[in-house]
């Protein structure tokens, strides 16, 4: 059952340009996985899914590395630092629950834009945002893409299409160093990681094949928001 749900989540998230870290954490919370396994497992699944998406977008030459480089410059070391920090169980669940609730709010408020990139990305602001998202990614196990895409669109730094293409590479880089940090801090993923990874990858491949015209974006967003809210509340109250 868990593997099937990982595949479904990965499919839904991949169809909107995300790796699914927030929902992976949500699902693991539902199944009562310990916090010491939740973070490295979510980061590992992010790596699997984002690797495929990054390869696909880069092969099609739709990744704007000029926007991404300053974000990665600060987010990667911040994610590593976050991965090295081990929070007490209650603190981790509360922080992660709040992040999931914030992610749901961001997803609710997100609005699409048809325009292309409207302005240059200020270096200082880009580095600051990258560091913040990287730290959150390493600390909690979410990839950061669910925050990156709406941030870029809201600030007019990227069009929706560009933001979708940028998210997987951002998630991949930060999840990788965050995972390394988690391992060094003594946290290890679930023994069932291989099975979960295969399911998540299958979902990601399917999600990139399924056209958004065949799915209702509003319906997908509603389902994902519901999952995030319920899991967020559950973690905060645990």
Q: Keywords for this structure?
A:
single chain; 238 residues; mainly alpha; 0% strand
What's the main sheet like? none
* Average pLDDT metric: 82
Give the radius of gyration: 16 Å
Name the helix and strand elements from N-terminus to C-terminus, one letter apiece: HHHHHHHHHH
Overall form: globular
Strand content: under 5%
Which consecutive residue ranges, at least 5 long each, have pLDDT under 50?
Answer: none
Instruction: Tell me the number of strands.
Output: 0
Derived structural class: mainly alpha
Q: What is the overall number of helices?
A: 10
Note the gap between the termini.
Answer: 23 Å
Give the tally of structural domains.
Answer: 1
Tell me the helix content: over 70%
Pfam families: TauE
InterPro entries: TM_pro_TauE-like, TSUP/Inactive_protease-like
Keywords: Cell membrane, Membrane, Transmembrane, Transmembrane helix
Subcellular location: Cell membrane; Membrane
Question: Can you characterise this structure?
Answer:
Belongs to the 4-toluene sulfonate uptake permease (TSUP) (TC 2.A.102) family. This is Probable membrane transporter protein. It is a multi-pass membrane protein. It comes from Bradyrhizobium cajani. The protein is mainly alpha-helical and 238 residues long. It has one domain (1-111, 118-237). The protein contains ten helices and no strands. It has helices at residues 2-14, 21-30, 35-59, 65-84, 89-109, 123-140, 145-154, 160-184, 193-209, 217-237. α5 packs antiparallel against α10.
């Amino acid at each position: 059952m868990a593997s099937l749900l990982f595949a479904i989540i990965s499919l839904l998230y991949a169809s909107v340009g995300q790796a699914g870290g927030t929902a992976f954490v949500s699902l693991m919370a539902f199944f009562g996985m310990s916090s010491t396994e939740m973070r490295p497992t979510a980061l590992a699944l992010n790596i699997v899914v984002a690797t495929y998406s990054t390869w696909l977008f880069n092969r099609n030459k739709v990744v704007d590395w000029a926007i991404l480089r300053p974000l990665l410059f600060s987010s990667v070391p911040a994610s590593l630092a976050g991965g090295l920090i081990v929070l007490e169980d209650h603190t981790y669940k509360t922080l992660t629950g709040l992040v999931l609730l914030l992610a749901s709010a961001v997803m609710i408020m997100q609005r699409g834009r048809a325009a292309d990139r409207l302005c240059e990305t200020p270096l200082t602001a880009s580095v600051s945002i990258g560091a913040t998202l990287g730290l959150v990614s390493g600390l909690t196990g979410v990839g950061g893409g669910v925050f990156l895409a709406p941030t870029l669109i809201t600030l007019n730094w990227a069009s929706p299409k560009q933001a979708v293409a940028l998210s997987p590479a951002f998630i991949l880089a930060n999840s990788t160093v965050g995972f390394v940090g988690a391992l060094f801090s003594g946290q290890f993923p679930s023994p069932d990681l291989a099975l979960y990874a295969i399911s998540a990858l299958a979902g990601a491949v399917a999600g990139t094949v399924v056209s958004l015209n065949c799915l209702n974006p509003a319906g997908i967003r509603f389902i994902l928001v519901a999952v995030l809210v319920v899991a967020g509340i559950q973690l905060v109250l645990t």
